[in-house]
Sequence to fold (1009 residues):
Amino acid sequence: MLSFIVNRALQMIPVIFGVTVVTFALTQIIPGDLVDVMLGSTASEDARQELRHALGLDQPVIVQYFSYMSHLLSGDLGRSHLFSLPVASVLGDRLVNTAILAVSATVVATALGIAIGTWVALKPGSLRDRGFTVAVLFLNSMPPFWFGLLLILFFGLSLGLLPVSGMYAVVDGGGLGDLLAHMVMPTLTLAAWSLAIIARMTRSALLDVINSDYIRTARSRGLAEPRIIANHALPNAMPQVITVIGLQAGFLLSGAVLTETVFSWPGIGLAMYQAISARDIPFIQGGVLLLAIVFVLINFVVDALYAYVNPKIKLA
Amino acid sequence: MAGLPEPLELNQDGAVPLLSVRDLSVAYGGVGRPVRVVDRVSFSVGAGQALGVVGESGCGKSQTMLAVLRLLPHGGRIASGRVLFDGRDLVGLTDDEMRRVRGRGIAYISQDALSALNPVMTIGRQMAEPLIVEEGMSEADARQRCVELLGQVGIPGAVQRLESYPHQLSGGMRQRVLIAMAISGRPKVLIADEPTTALDVTLQAQILALIDRLRRELGMALVLISHDLGVVAGVTDSVAIMYAGRVVETATTAAVFAQPQHPYTRALLDALPRLDAPVEDKLRPIAGRPPDPMRLPPGCAFHPRCGHAEPRCRIEVPQLADRGAHHLVSCWVAPAVTAVARSVEPSATQPAHEAAPDAVIATDVSIHFPVRHGIFRRVVGRVRAVDGVSLTMRTGRTVGLVGESGSGKSTFGRALLGLVPLANGTISHFGLPFTGRRGQPRHLPRLGQMVFQDPYASLNPRMTVGAALAEVLAVHDVVARSECEPRVAELLDSVGLRPDLARLHPHELSGGQRQRIAIARALAIEPKFIVCDEVVSALDVSIQGQIINLLQELQRAHRLSYLFISHDLSVVRHISHEIAVMYGGKIMEMGSRDRLFAAPHHPYTHTLLSAVSVPDPHIERRRRRVEIRSEPPDPANPPTGCRFQRSCRFAAERCRTDEPALRPVDDAQQVACHFWDRDDVRAALSVTASAAA
Fold:
């Protein structure tokens, strides 16, 4: 198990290296010049040349990449002109906020998804099962921001039960209770789509497993059905479900952009949205790099979980 | 006592049977058009007795047993009938009451032990679970009991095995674990569903002996399901033969084998190639195939395949009737008619010593696979799948290659077609040499073809049969495009299929038909030799014979050479002119068929022969099998000296240091053993060999 994890961790190095190449290439590929963005179209040619030189943009590409990398390795992601702060410090604050939302959405989607999927798999073809299919179709085909707007309209504006934007109330804000109240709707919005996918995958994986020979063996030995489902069927269905959860975790990162925008949640998604609108290239660069690294790490965790639930990988 | 069993429910010795199934029917599908897969089946088995249930796949034997346990898959239900066990009707029990019968009253062993064990739980945990949660044992007591159980089924080092996962055990070991789990609840009835089918022949014999021993020791009743009459012959007291969801004949084992009365039983026995019959007999397969339960023929379901069918058979369904001495048969035809044996037609096999030109010569062939490790996939070792094998195939002849799974026989077969790179050695095809270090030379596919075990997996499911055959013709420019269609029809005709099958997809065909298509595809480019890799292993007995006869006819018509790879010695003996026995990547013994079977000189050949079951209760009960003592050697780390040393009862110091070379016994036989000509070895090998033959 340990050697598997070490092996897998070492494999991340070239991937992350590749990511830096791509984020660096962003500055080269994006149409328009960074200097145009920073100085506006009215600046004189001399001022442009001066800034270009100061930023090292007149150097050959390979030299630019090495200077980019050496800054990167010392933790310097450049300066965001939108936030007037170092990119790294903005990203750090925002990452925590996004993580709060993403983790709670993942927990909700996973717990509810597995529970609902299991409940439905016990009675294939029943009324419950058919209702489930319709619900999954609905959740999967509606855009997350629209679902968020509906929630705001209903719980926030009509019923006035929940706060509709931000992380804390502006007046007398702060504290865990306040945070939780603000989290409910963004979390549900972000979780809805993944929940449907995870429930559907749990159902189909479990149905496959329930028809397998070893479940018949367990039944033929007189074990009780709830025990068979919990102890024999679910652990065998888990690898497929974990794969989907891992993919969903990646989706949550992109979903966060929309959800955070709808709920004005001060996370990376909202900041990226603002940075893209303002063409704040250093910030976009840093944000993409961070999100990519988080994505690689999530996949690493999923693979480790995979090995944990499947002894064939663990012992290989 | 109220509800005293009716006279029918008494056993032959007058005792109340332990498990008695009465008119049990199983149906699938809606109320409007239910499909009956089991139709009014009755049987009974008393404490300590053994019943064999025999029939081809799809005849309803497994469905009957799953219905007894009320474990039918989704959609199946018991349509009618009773299952009396220990004085209760199981059909009427609540789910919870039924659950308590499973495991402790009636236990079940299924066919494929790898899929029947939970892959993510250790052996110890899954064995102990019911002991702890159902019987209330403590962890430590349950563990102790598991160790005892594993010892009882012959697993050495039981304490360590408890920590293993199923995939870490060998096939035989897994089957033993499954048996240990089944007897852990001290059941009164053990239902074993094809418990030896997926195993090698030597393991088959051992597992069967184990089940038989446990039945006696624990006083259980045994219901043994098998498609193989040889398997039930030795260990059962009575036999029920099933066809199309019904019992067609049932009697004591001795009576069924000595005087089979139903034409189907007789046909099953005739279709089986057997080690104790003269090899010149042509196999007599049953024409056609078992009916689809959705479309049963009217009258007796067997009449379309029956050689004795009378007009009445096509209209009226016969019922089981007692023909004396509790021999029940459902057949309209008078016993005198069906008892007449059909004349045996000798098969036209050539004499074994006729000189034939060499087709394929393999010289000192070794095939190694690298073992890789670490992130840079460094090669850290080599699996020696095949190690120094020399073999000659001659034109128009068949070489049988036998050995257990993992012995390297399939790998060698592939190498003959250039599909696997050789580490060493050369292969020449009709004088064209080939070293096989890199890629397949262009001439090879035209010369040699391969037919695999599973025709369904080797045919593209999205292509029609005609398209699959035409593709081969087009790729190799065998005929002009315009002539493809007539040529496809010809090919289908040559393998005994109607040309209009060309429009169908593989899933619309039966297993036997698919294997014929696979053979037609191999024949399409008119090859000179064909490697047949377990081509009949997945087929029912009645169909097996059809394919073997077809292969023999094609061989005569086209002067084909076959390498016939199989673990089934009876089949190999029937079709081969020469036989090579492989073990651990090496040839142990090689020679003409008659010599090898009559006088094996290698202890391994002898062990294999002694393990083959024969459909004759008298022979089966008398015979003594030679137990294999250990698992085959690890091909990544073979022992020095003889590969068979650890399983050999004659192994001496020299076998551990010197590797025996293949040496001629005479001009018709070669053996790789240091001691083949020692008097005590020859004596020991000849005694039981003659008993088997």
